[in-house]
Fe2OG dioxygenase domain-containing protein (Neoarthrinium moseri), 928 residues
Amino acid sequence: MASDRSKRKASDSLEEEYFPTNSKTARRCKQTMPAATRSSARIAARATRPDKSSHSAPIIYNDDFLGIGSGNGAAANVTDFNAHLHPDTSRYAEVFGGMNQGLSSQAQGGIYGVNHSFDIATTTNVIGNGNGQTAYYNAPLPHMGEVTSNGMTGGRVGGAWMMNDGSEHATHTGSGDASFAAPQHPQGTAKTNYVHSYNRAALCDSVDYFKSHEGGNYHFNKTTLGLLIDSHGSIRDYIDGTVVITNLGGEKKRDSTTAKMTHGESQTKESKYFQFLTNTVSLGHAVVIILGDRNPRSPIKPAFPYSVMGHFMVTDIWSEASLDNQNNKVAFWMVRLEKIPTAQMSWWVRGTGDDSHLYAVGQNVCPSFICSGCGNTSKMIYNEGWTCLKPECPNHFQFTVDIGYGQQQSMVLGKVHYSTTFLRERKDPSLLIRHPLAPLVPALPTRADAAFGTEKDFKKGIVCPQCLCASRRVRWCRWECEEPTCDFTYSVDFNIYSIDEVRRETKMAKKAKPMNKAIEISNIVQEWTTTIAGYEVNTYALPGEDGTVVGTVSVLHATEGICAKLHGPDDMYINLQQRDLKLQRKAARLHGNRGEELTSHFASNWGAPYKFGVMVDTTGFDEAPEEILRGVSQLTWAQGQIINAIDQKIQDDSIQYAATSMSLRSEPFNELLSLGYFEDCVINYHDDGERELGPTVASLSLGSPSVMRFRPKKRNSIGHTPKTLDDKSKNKPAVLSFPLYHGDICIMHGTDVHRLYEHEVKPNGMLRYAMTSRYIRPETINDEAVRADALIKGKLPAGIEALAYKGQDETGDLNDMNAEVSSVEAPGTLVMDSSTVQRGQADERADNDVSNDSGDIPNADDRTQADADASVPTQLSQGSSISQATALLDDLCLDAEHLSRLSPQQKRALGNRLIRMGLTCHEAIEEN
Ligand SMILES: O=C(O)CCC(=O)C(=O)O
Ligand SMILES: [Fe+2]
């Protein structure tokens, strides 16, 4: 026992040292505080005139401060003025005037503060006249100039005017009648003098002291740096202008009977949050507290969901207890923190008459007693009497209660109240905090010469220097303040990320172990290889639940030669960096926490609108930059090639495949999703299985290397059969992964690839783009206007044929991508005119499907067709009609007799098939 006790003492000694009993603190403070600071640290005065019909102002003088307040009125309840000075510097003064006036319309009052340390030009003047129930004014710092608010003659509800600090921030809130004239901030923006945010992700993204997307306790290196106090506090949580008391949380559960959140298991000294907080204390760090607007103890209703209260020092940690519904005692940690004094009034008590800043170090001291059960010291912090606050002690949180007949009983009390002495105790920050306080408003990021602007630091949020709203980086090109009324934007120039850099990254990725490991092919996946137009192609066939091939994933590996081709991947990559692709991060799924998270990657959509999990802003192809159109062209070409190759493979090897999933005809792409990835951006597991989509999704990778992975979805039997419920909820391991390098094209074919599998892409470098094309089936869009929009936006502009992509011919020569589509090349050197295919396919579908009313949508090109029909075209384009297609075929094909037996629609389909597949006219006819 003896050794136990000494052990306990040793472990407690740290706590003792940093949570000294008040008498010790008082003594130490007296000894260490310089005289000058002592005299000005808490110079404060307060005048209260309760229920007086009229009174003149209290005048408070000290070296740095003059405050005058006056108020009169038939029923002025309370007028109080107080002031305190920053303990560290006499050049700061804070003036606070609060008025609560009665209902009488006669009441009026105001405050006027002059800081003697500054000349008249920097004087703080605030004059307020008003009446109503709540009117208050405060003017903490001296740079404000003059602010006057008059009005509310006969108003029902008074106005509130808050002038905050000297950095030209002002907030006006309040309501009054029409005659209330409130000066507007020059920019017309809502301003505060404290960091705040509309959602948690924005705060976590923008500041270093709170990055916990879930839970209220943010720690780094096992040290608590930030606490969020929101809903779910304990019943004894407490907030005033200086002191915050909160439970350490973290281990709560919902009580099945009462549905209330209760502390699940008892927290001990092994509880991590206790350990992290004691680390904070022993290292001498401050903690930043963030007030959530659902905190039931907040003295005022905060204006924002998350508001930074400031730096606090931990003064006490102790253990309380409550009884669960089986009457078992559950212990939990509580912490008391004290605001580290600043020049700023605590915004969360403005107008509440809070006087917590008036108490000085040593003025109030809680007595401490040694516990007879454990020999440790605990303070007497409750009105209900002293109890041991050490969770390991048998006397822990037992109060001696009078139960009548002169008898007493020791019990856990449900309701206890902190003593005012405890709440008014004050600690000297210089004794507890040993590090400079990290700024609450981080500096805006700037780019060093060697940086590119896409490093992960530039993806963080910022705190708007104008209104202090924590704002995420939503847009690729710049930051925009998320405060709706603030117009602040900020950008950091990008440095072009060169092809040499991409090659260097690629080389490293190929060498690096994780990248080598990236190639994983489970034995349930078949692999086929081939070569198409200079690309080495791997096709992975994915099985369905019965083993039949339900879809394929093909990767066309680009050589450096392909990449370097004129208008090829290298050119595209460099050009894209100089375009505004309108890339943005969009709100992603909520993980049970409040507010939205953003996707890691940035996206924008071109062509037909596409809801990629969330709706992405869409620009029609007619307004798309050339690189986007080239992307569609190249991907459409690749699609034709791959479907042809798969078709061939299936026939050659008599492979069983799910025809419902894998149609072996290509659909024309009418959409391209451009994705941008900064360093560390990813696209997490998802599927592209929207019902509107055709079976093929093709994607061109540009820039930094990445790894793509596929895994079967949870609830199917692919990979392994989930047996238990628990099993069903677990993610399965990937069955296929491979790297994607600059210029590579990945083609997923088969709707079941998305019904049964999901995929992710994790780039590993500084800057990557992906361009992913799909076919959005207009006939699946019920809303006529949306369908019309999809048809218009998804239409490739006339002249697209100039961008036709030809791949590489059989001799290995790289064809100029600028070449006109004027002749049909040998197989594998397909000439692709995607607009033709699109148009042709649409016609085919209209012919085959009478229920498809998409043909009713007026075609803007119709009026030009008569003219165009007059001559034999050398190529098909957006405006080509069926007769033009027929004419072109007639011109190209020698077998006129065969052709003459085809209907115009068949000719059109044939022409498109021919073009898509790179077949000669004779081959196509034979195929047909
Ligand atoms: O970045 C990539 O390559 C993947 C793109 C993707 O999965 C998508 O657009 O759906
Ligand atoms: Fe995808």
About this structure: The longest helix spans residues 626-652. Residues 39-174 form one domain. The mean pLDDT is 71. The chain is about 20% helix and 25% strand.
